[in-house]
């Protein structure tokens, strides 16, 4: 097994979770942004994380005679997707962004962001980041012990 491959996989996970945390932080920062450049309220963003391409090397055939299997290749960030759920409407007739006429008169379109959901996602991203950091530490410790055996 390639020792550095396990570090690459965990590092890709840490990079993806950092990106996810950045996206969540951006959502929280814009939770009250009622008007963007497009004139619409801020739309929640979600990090798109997918499995990375499989590496080009193959593990040897197992003792039970199974076919060789591929190692995982970690993850990659494919970008950001917009959450297309409906905006929230809050009655604030004195707000300059309030709708001036019609059925929604006096209401302000607010971003489709739920702070509780964002904080829950932030905790999950933080835990995943920590898990990848722990995996790197374990790989480092195993390599150190292997070097001690070789002395």
Uncertain stretches of 5 or more adjacent residues? none
What about the largest sheet?
2 strands, antiparallel
Strand content range: 15-25%
> Strands across the major sheet, in which order?
1-2
Radius of gyration: 23 Å
Number of helices: 2
The chain-level structural class is alpha+beta
Shape: elongated
Taken together, the total number of domains comes to 1
Number of E-state strands:
4
Estimate the helix proportion, in percent: 40-55%
H-E string: HEEEEH
Distance between the termini: 21 Å
Mean pLDDT: 87
List keywords for this structure.
alpha+beta; two-stranded antiparallel ribbon; 41% helix; 151 residues; 2 helices
Describe the model.
The longest helix has 35 residues. The model has no long low-confidence stretch (mean pLDDT 87). This protein is 41% helix and 15% strand. The radius of gyration is 23 Å and the shape is elongated. The strands form 2 sheets. Strands 1-2 form a two-stranded antiparallel sheet. It has a two-stranded antiparallel ribbon with strand order 3-4. Helix 1 runs antiparallel to helix 2. The protein has one domain. With 151 residues, the protein is an alpha+beta fold.
Write a short abstract of this structure.
The protein has 151 residues and is of the alpha+beta class.
